[in-house]
Amino acid sequence: MNILLIEDDKKISEFIELGLQNSGYSSACAYDGKSAWNEIVDKNFDAIILDIMLPDTDGLSLLTQMRAQNISTPVLILSAKKSLEEKIAGLESGGDDYLVKPFAMAELIARLQAITRRSAFAISTTSETGAEIQLKYCDLIMNLETRDVFRQDKKIILQVKEFALLDLLLRNQEKVITKAIILEKIWGYDFDPQTNVVDVLVCRLRNKIDKDFSEKIIQTHRGVGYVLKKD
Predict the structure, then answer these.
(1) SS3 (DSSP) at 150
(2) Euclidean distance between CA atoms 5 and 51, whole angstroms
(3) 33, 78, 131, 143: least surrounded by Cβ within 10 Å?
(4) What is the pLDDT of residues 10-64, one digit of tens each?
(5) Strand residue runs (E) in the chain
(6) 0.85 cut: is pTM over it?
């Protein structure tokens, strides 16, 4: 796997690069936001390790820019900031996981492996097994092979987590999916991190699936979870 490390502290950067090398990863390093962005748009990476504090930009601004451009590469955020609010901000900006400094290299590698596994699962198709490659509910169609999503013949562009959530809802249509299940399936959490990342993700998906259509099909069961169901 090829990893992009965005970290302005040279000592920390060297420590991480050595750990990645010892774990069998190849890596490139950027020390500021401008060079990092050039790497992101010019090359393909399996994952990105992103420090929030960069000399020329806020790392979360860089992350938001990535997601706005539909760049879905998994991102592990590094930060000395450890408050719950700061972790929520990182995840809501499109981060896949959040690791507080100082950290053990073994934990960084484990978290990196987890987010790349989840990403690989999210983009996999089922055609090779002979299983269905298309999911449908009302006028909404998802093709698992091409990753195209249409509603009333309008193509809808989804980011990786949005696609994974819609996949989960389509496979369980008209069944309420709890927040705990969404956290487990989309983020790989087996506990409640006490954040509103699920609500934020559902809101983003609603804006793309329901906003421009008269019939709303993503429903909220207050205090429980969400369901794909007609009004």
Answers:
(1) strand
(2) 8
(3) 131
(4) 899 999 999 999 888 999 999 999 999 999 988 889 899 999 888 888 889 999 8
(5) 2-6, 26-30, 47-51, 75-79, 97-100, 134-137, 140-143, 149-151, 154-156, 177-178, 218-221, 225-228
(6) no
